[in-house]
Amino acid sequence: MEHITSSEVAGFGVGTLLLCATIAAPKVDAFISASQRSSLGLCKRCGDLRMIACSRCRGTGLIKANGPFSFNLIDTLYQSEEIKVKSVGCTKCQARGHFSCPDCSNTSTS
């Protein structure tokens, strides 16, 4: 990288900032939603829904049979209606897709 211009340096800087913002977005969103729930008097974790989505299956109760990282570009691009993605039930949540909130279940109302 001999003769790098100021425009290229600015481009690298902006690209780096965008990448950092993209990576940090879920954590910032979780922080803001927790503070909003707290200010409204709701449970910080579930928002008084009394259930939390499973982190493994993301609330669906199903996982692809080949695993979460299986990806075949040819099959994805040319997938016909006859080919169905094989799924198995999530073992972490027993295929329910959610758990009861540990914060709300500790303070049960009688």
UniProtKB/TrEMBL annotation:
Protein name: Uncharacterized protein
Domain of life: Eukaryota
